[in-house]
Write a structure and sequence with these properties.
This protein is α+β, with helices and mostly antiparallel strands. It is 37% helix and 19% strand. The protein is built from 14 helices and 15 strands. A five-stranded mixed β-sheet has the order 11-12-13-14-15, with helices on one face. Strands 1-3-2 form a three-stranded antiparallel β-sheet. Helix 2 packs across helix 4, helix 6 packs across helix 7 and helix 9 packs across helix 11. The protein starts with 9 loop residues before the first helix and ends with a helix.
Length: 394
């Protein structure tokens, strides 16, 4: 890279980022259903995860930004066809206005460029599709043990057919019952006025860079194209950034760690204020999902360890990042024992001593987090320092 990169006030950059994520003050997106839609539109997605050690990731992310958030608010947006399920870099809830940018993956699946485990049974896929057309929304369980023209359907092949039809855009998730998806034909779920045209590589690159700059004020090609392996897309991302440099809307910066990024020049004019509160974040929060980016911008090397063998875990199975002001203060490993209405605080790893000015915000944050899990008490493990147990135990 050229030596034209300049430095930036990294504290100010962090505050700009946190304001973009809605973590700088109370109710940044408003409340209720409209607040949830505004948050999703700004964030671009809320990742869905099956782990339920604490509240599921998509609800956790939204609750972190929307006071009084309830899962029914997200369900209502799905029912109103303002939000849909598909893939961002992982399974996610997305604003319906971004539907066309799901098309590249759908089209790649249809062309056979993305493969699923097991065979692609076209005959079974047609039968599954025809049955949903005739009967309306169905779940995988509705195909369990049903006798079809080719013999008894097993659950796994029918599930495979549903997933392929979903990923190539023929089916959409119309609703969930509990955590079970119910699929319907895409044409019956999509609003009549939604733009369904597949974007060009240039349009898709522009969308991804807009998303990265909107949330982080700066980006790199690997970050903007996170987990997207298309060589054509990477080239389009590089071309889009080059065009923005030429137009003067981004410039190259170098952080103290030596890493270089492309900064949105309009973002530099912002001077947001950050409340000195503690946020308990999901491991799948957009703020921390890319480990390298979190380390470069916040000096916080965070990795979710539930996917690691137990022998390689340093902090715990499902540690939650703890944000205080514009810096991360550490992480905690916990589990919601909903039957006993108790939050088990198994470990607390802090990067700084708990001073008097931090004690109350930390206590308030953990109490509110426990309440959000349906827990009335917090039980701290012996591994938590004695000085902290005395005021964190409810």
């Amino acid at each position: 890279m050229p030596d034209s990169a300049s430095s930036i006030d990294e504290g100010r950059l962090r505050r700009i980022i946190l304001a973009a994520h809605g973590l700088h003050r109370q109710a940044p997106f408003g409340r209720g259903r409209n607040g949830v839609l505004k948050a999703l539109t700004q964030l671009g997605y809320a990742q869905i995860d099956t782990i339920s050690v604490v509240e599921r990731a998509h609800h956790h992310v939204l609750r972190s930004r929307i006071p009084g958030y309830r899962p029914a608010l997200l369900d209502a947006l799905v029912a109103r066809r303002e939000v849909f399920e598909y893939w961002f870099h992982a399974a996610a809830y997305l604003p319906m206005s971004d539907y066309r940018f799901a098309r590249p993956r759908m089209d790649a699946v249809r062309r056979g460029e993305m493969h699923f485990q097991g065979p692609r049974d076209e005959k079974l896929m047609r039968r599954v599709h025809d049955r949903i057309r005739a009967e309306g929304p169905l779940s995988a369980a509705d195909f369990d043990g049903e006798r079809g023209p080719g013999g008894w359907w097993e659950w796994k092949p029918a599930k495979q057919a549903l997933e392929i039809l979903f990923f190539q855009g023929d089916l959409m998730v119309a609703e969930r019952k509990g955590f079970q998806k119910r699929y319907d034909l895409a044409e019956r779920v999509l609003p009549a006025d939604i733009d369904t045209r597949a974007p060009s590589d240039q349009e898709y690159a522009r969308h991804l860079i807009d998303h990265a700059l909107r949330l982080f004020a700066s980006t790199t090609v690997p970050e903007a194209g996170y987990l997207r392996r298309s060589a054509r897309l990477r080239e389009a991302l590089r071309a889009e950034l080059a065009a923005r440099v030429e137009a003067g809307t981004v410039r190259e910066i170098q952080l103290r760690d030596g890493s270089r990024r492309w900064l949105d020049t309009a973002a530099e004019a912002q001077t947001p204020r950050i409340m000195r509160t503690v946020h308990v974040l999901s491991p799948f929060d957009p703020l921390v999902i890319q480990r390298g980016r979190t380390a470069a911008l916040f000096g916080f090397d965070y990795q979710i360890e539930c996917y690691l063998p137990q022998s390689k875990r340093r902090f715990g199975y499902f540690c939650l990042p703890l944000l205080y002001g514009d810096r991360f203060l550490g992480q905690m490993d916990c589990k919601a024992d909903r039957a006993r209405q108790r939050l088990e605080l198994r470990a607390l790893h802090l990067d700084q001593p708990v001073s008097e000015h931090l004690r109350e915000p930390l206590q308030q944050a953990l109490a509110a987090f426990a309440q959000a899990q349906g827990c009335e008490s917090i039980e701290t493990a012996r591994s938590v320092p004695r000085a902290l147990r005395s005021f964190l135990t409810l």
